[in-house]
Each structure stands twice: as C-alpha cells, then as structure tokens.
Amino acid sequence: MNARHRFIALSLLVSAPLAISSWAQAASFETLITTPLAIEGLTNDNQGNLYTPARGGSPSCPVYRVNIANPSLVVVGNIPAPCSPSGLAFNRAGRLFVSQGSDIVSFVPNSSSPPAATVFASGVPGTNGLAFDRAGNLWTGDGTTGLGRVWKVSPAGLVTEMFRVQPMVNVVPAFTVGATTFTGVGRDVRTVPTGNSQPLVANGLAFDREGNLFIADTARGAIWKVSFEPSGQLRSQTGCDTTFTPNTLCLENIFVQHSLLDGADGIALDEAGNIWVSANERNAMVVVSNEGREVTEVFRNPPDPTSKLRNGGPLETPTSPALSDLRLCTANSDGGRRDNSPPSGGELPALGLGKISCMTERLQVRGMPLPVR
C-alpha cells in the first residue's frame, strides 16, 4: 500500500478515486471555537452548522450549535446529568440523537427554548458513534468497552445486536503460565505515557451511498467495511474463529489497516466515498481513498523545536470529523495520551475544556449530506 506521509492540501476530483497527485500545498488547521466543557462528538446539518454535546455539565450537559461562518456557542438542547455524551446524528425529520452511557437520547434542537433530551433507546452499553442507514435505522457500536458490539436500533427504539468487530482478546478457558492465570489471549495495545490499554475496536461509524457500513477500529488502526443484503441482513462473513462469539466478523472484512490510522476515532465520508479520519493518538487527520488503496496524512501537529512534543496544537486529541459542504472540521477532547501528552501544552490550558478545529483550505469534494439517503 502506498501511503504518503506528508502535509498536503486537498484537490480532490469526484471522477477519480483520490487525486493525490494534484495535492500541492501544505494543509493547515485553525481553531474555530473553544468550549467551556469537554467535547467529543461532532456532526453537521446541511445549513453550515456544527453540533457538539458537552460533557460533565450540571445540572445538565448542553448541546451546542456552531455556525462555521460566524462561530458562537448556541445551546439547542440539554442532556440531564449525570452525562458524558459521545456521538450524535440527525434523522431525516431533523431530530438529533446522542449516545449517552448505555442509552441513546434524542430531541429536536431549539435555540429559543432548548429542550431536555429524552431516552430513545436503552441497552446499548458503551454506545459511542452513531449513524443512520437508508431505512431510518440507527446504528451504534460499544466504543468504550472493547467488546466490539454493533447494534441496530429500529425507528421504534428496538435494539438488536447485529454483529461484533473482532475484539483484541479471545475469550477462552482460563489457563496458567508460571504463576499467572489468564482468561484470554490476544494483543494488548498500550498508550504511553499513561500505560493504559487501548482495546476499542468499534468506534466511529458511517454509511456510504451503497449502504455499506464503515467502522473505525481504534486499537488496530483500521477501518472495517460491512455489507448487507437488500433485505437488510448481514452479508459480510462471520464465524471464522470459534474462540469468538459466532456473530464476530472475519478479518477479511478489514477494509484497510495502516499505522497512519493509529488511534482512529471518528470518521466521515465525502461524496466521492473517501473516508476522513480523526486519528486522536497522533494528533492527526488522515484520509483513506474510496477503494482503500491509499492512506494519506492530511495534517499532523508539527513537533515543538525544543521539547519535540506534538501537543501544542492546533489539534489536541481530535475525535470526531465533520464534513460540512467543503469544510473539514473536527472536535478535540484534549486527552492526556500519546501525542497530546501532557494535555496542557496547547491552546486548552486545563482538562475539562474542548474545541473545534477546521482546516483552513477548502475541499473540492463536498461532504456527504447527512443522513445518507
């Protein structure tokens, strides 16, 4: 696979899979707006607005609307505390759905009288990224547990586990090596300097126009591609390894895996089918061509000349990209891991704050209108 590890400007042609050869100048990012509370999720409408839910608020967590051309924080809804919301997505009726703990909540945004979100569906532990399919079903993965579960939620709120992205650890009978007893075998990805494991394999989600579902695998640095029959039943193969649950995807469903995708968190698709990725552990933005043949680093924070750290911004743990018309933006959660450690090195002086960053240059391929029709 030919990956070009360099800063680039974007000149994409819809008629070509990904016109890397036409990218000539260095891309740059700038802060659109900062938030007084931490954020992670980001989505957009089709009128030039971004939406992001705040975390840790009391007595509620506000959901902000931000106009890209004239940025300010406008509260359009509230999620009752205790709250630590993640992903969010609109349905075709303009109702906004937000993942929250083991629930998915929803409301109709209203800046004049911000409503309190109500529970739409329960029984989705660790729900994170959200995406609607063409039939109006809402999909989500357990982006905080590491089990790799992916659920479909019907318009009536009925939750069904559809499949699992292969987790990093097989669940096998306990066995002992020396003085240590193990209950599973696999790979333990750890992030410095915290030393914490990174087990998350079902993070951001997005559908293309053909109905294929793409899923960000944070631990592997990969994107999975899942296809369905016209009836909606799963077409992608499962059950290749009996040490996993029978509904676990086979490894052949990995669309692309690459070191530039380490820490892949949220994803967004443009109208040409290219996948834009917030690589949070690397303080970088990456694009995967629509055929998966090229993985290109759009931007990565430059290192400080003295400290050699990459925590000075403009990206500070980018989590969720959004493509609003020709603008590429991302939420930043300012976590204290890998390239963003210590988190106090950038524009956000303390934990518990957030910001939205946007690429200065405009794309030449528009973001896919949401929800996908």
Task: Spell out the key features of this protein.
mainly beta; five-stranded antiparallel sheet
Distance between the termini: 32 Å
Q: Describe the biggest sheet?
A: 5 strands, antiparallel
Poorly predicted parts: 1-18, 20-25
Structural class: mainly beta
The ordered string of helix (H) and strand (E) elements is: EEEEEEEEEEEEEEEEEEEEEEEEEEEEE
Mean pLDDT: 90
Number of strands: 29
* Percentage of residues in strands: 35-45%
The percentage helix is under 10%
Instruction: Output the radius of gyration.
Output: 20 Å
Mass-distribution shape: globular
Quaternary class: single chain
User: What is the tally of helical segments?
Assistant: 0
Describe the secondary structure blueprint for this structure.
Layout: E1 29-35, E2 38-39, E3 43-44, E4 49-55, E5 60-67, E6 74-80, E7 88-90, E8 96-100, E9 103-107, E10 118-122, E11 127-132, E12 138-142, E13 149-153, E14 159-164, E15 169-177, E16 180-186, E17 190-191, E18 196-197, E19 205-207, E20 213-217, E21 222-226, E22 254-257, E23 264-269, E24 275-279, E25 284-288, E26 295-300, E27 318-324, E28 327-332, E29 354-359
Antiparallel strand pairs: 1-29, 2-4, 3-4, 4-5, 5-6, 7-8, 8-9, 9-10, 11-12, 12-13, 13-14, 15-16, 17-18, 19-20, 20-21, 21-22, 23-24, 24-25, 25-26, 27-28, 28-29
